[in-house]
Specification:
Layout lengths: L10 E6 L4 H16 L8 E6 L5 H15 L9 H7 L1 E5 L5 H10 L5 E6 L6 H10 L8 E4 L7 H12 L7 E3 L7 H12 L12 E9 L8 H26 L8 H14 L8 E6 L8 H5 L9 E6 L11 E6 L6 E8 L17 E7 L3 E9 L8 E9 H5 L1 H4 L4 H11 L8 H20 L5 E3 L7 H8 L11
Parallel strand pairs: 1-2, 1-4, 2-3, 4-5, 5-6, 7-10, 8-15
Antiparallel strand pairs: 7-11, 8-9, 9-10, 11-12, 12-13, 13-14
This protein binds 6-O-phosphono-beta-D-glucopyranose.
Length: 484
């Protein structure tokens, strides 16, 4: 059974930075896949805009190559690529000059949804917002989409928000965090709030601790200059991991709607305790195999930027007091593994003897590689020999459970772009959320720079620095193994 897709209303989507890397790899192939899934309406148009001096035919040729490279596997009929290219148009645009904006405005239709994707660096956000507004390329019904990094700290995030809000209302601003577009991340809400089973146990009384892991095998080779100014804290924790933490820890919203969900997430961020240096472990990968060290990739021999971070985070409210959230993320680890593991407390009393007599259940929400949900439960070991207990997974891998529907499952970007067209902000970060996240991150970063803290080297293809094991050991706990 293929997934049900409901076509969206006709739209003009302008991609500023339309010939850039994100457009080529994610946005354009994503839109193509949505067309193949039957979600594009008649009258959908995508207008690339960038400094490159090319015409419509040139842009179509560029997109054809991008689709061959990044959407080659898509199941679609023979004429699909040509139909998609027919939807495209192009405008040469120097963001700072007026001429291109005037031409762009003439290209757009009055009676369809209008969205503008800022697929460029944040230093241009303010200027683009002003030009869109001054030239009336957008109106109060239009939407704008912006990408991370949304600021480098609280001050810069506030400045960016102010620049955007000077021209657009908050309900028009779609700040992308692609983790929110991942299927399992939304499933976390479905599991929590669509079942009566888990919610009564979802609190400090029953949950011993939560582990959030986003492990990657990739290095920062090729993007070392950006990454070295950012590090794992700014690149992954302030946004992606923060969102995972919020969805795990938040109170049930009164309904599944943009402000109801975001209000609850914001309360979680505001309830986060400051993290002392003793609860943070930072690491930097060493050279290994045929891959260079972090320092070589960053081209900064004195770099103290972390490519790995682990932290013990406390959510100071009634639901979570006493139940820590351990989070970790790193590059060049043994496996690509991202998951949220909710580790329940042991049964209060055991009637059995032996090693397994009091093992807590674990609910694992796996984001990648194989999206799915697993509940680890204790059962009797099969066969004779007395009452021996063992642990088994109750496993639901989406690919197996949902069959064909998974083949048509949109990737994070596809889903989020369609949400922009639908006007649904639930899976986008609100300005106050982003600022609150920076307000929590900034003092932690400041503390380690004041202390001249240096990251601990760790073996490429391992599971991170030794000290990160200690972070849990000293609390009598241990990390789940990083494995594919
Ligand atoms: C990006 C980060 O936002 O997310 C990258 O800048 C990171 O450093 C990437 O590799 C991870 O995304 P995903 O979807 O591959 O887990």
């Amino acid at each position: 059974m293929a997934a049900t897709t409901i076509p969206v209303d006709p739209f003009d989507l302008v991609i500023i930075g339309g010939t850039g890397d994100l457009a080529r790899r994610k946005i354009l192939p994503g839109l193509f896949r949505r067309m193949c899934a039957g979600q594009m309406p008649e009258g959908a148009r995508v207008i690339g805009a960038s400094r490159s001096d090319m015409d419509r035919a040139g842009f179509q040729a560029f997109v054809r190559t991008a689709l061959e490279e990044f959407a080659g596997e898509t199941q679609c009929d023979d004429g699909a690529v040509d139909r998609f290219l027919d939807m495209l148009d192009y405008e040469t645009l120097d963001v700072f000059a007026d001429a291109g904006w005037k031409r762009l405005k003439k290209k757009l239709r009055a009676d369809v949804i209008r969205a503008v994707y800022f697929s460029v660096g944040p230093s241009l956000f303010g200027e683009i917002a002003r030009k869109l507004s001054d030239h009336k390329v957008t109106d109060e019904h239009s939407r704008i989409v912006v990408e991370k990094p949304f600021g480098h700290d609280l001050e810069t995030a506030q400045a960016l928000n102010a620049e955007l809000r000077a021209c657009f209302d908050e309900h028009q601003i779609y700040r992308i965090d692609h983790y929110l577009g991942k299927e399992t991340v939304q499933n976390l809400m479905a599991v929590r709030f669509g079942n009566a089973l888990f919610e009564p146990l979802w609190n400090a009384q029953h949950v011993d601790h939560v582990q959030i892991t986003v492990g990657e095998t990739v290095s920062v080779d090729g993007r070392g200059a950006y990454y070295d100014k950012s590090g794992a804290m700014r690149d992954m924790v302030q946004n992606h991991i923060m969102q995972l933490l919020c969805l795990t820890a938040m109170e049930p919203p009164s309904k599944y709607g943009a402000d109801a969900v975001r209000d609850e997430k914001l309360k979680v961020i505001r309830a986060l305790e400051p993290v002392p240096l003793t609860d943070v472990v930072r690491g930097q990968y060493s050279a290994g195999g045929d891959v260079d060290s972090y320092v070589a990739h960053s081209q900064n021999p004195k770099s103290t930027t972390e490519s790995y971070i682990a932290m013990k985070v406390k959510v100071a409210n009634w639901r979570w007091a006493g139940t820590p959230f351990y989070i970790r993320t790193g590059k060049r680890l043994r496996a690509r593994m991202s998951e949220i593991a909710v580790v329940f407390k042991d049964p209060p009393h055991s009637i059995f003897e032996g090693e397994f007599n009091r093992k807590g259940n674990v609910l694992i929400i796996r984001l990648q590689p194989d999206e799915g949900i697993t509940l680890r439960v204790t059962i009797k070991e099969p066969g004779p020999g007395g009452m021996r207990l063992t642990e088994v997974p109750l496993d639901m891998t989406f690919a197996e459970a949902l069959g064909d529907q998974v083949a048509f499952m949109p990737d994070a970007y596809e889903r989020l772009i369609m949400d922009v067209i639908r006007g649904d902000q639930t899976l986008f970060m609100r300005g106050d959320e982003v600022e609150a996240a920076w307000a929590w991150v900034d003092p932690i970063v400041k503390a380690w720079s004041d202390a001249r803290d240096k990251p601990e080297p760790y073996d490429a293809s391992g599971s991170g620095p030794e000290d990160s094991l200690m972070l849990l050991h000293r609390d009598g706990r241990r990390w789940r193994e990083i494995k594919a």
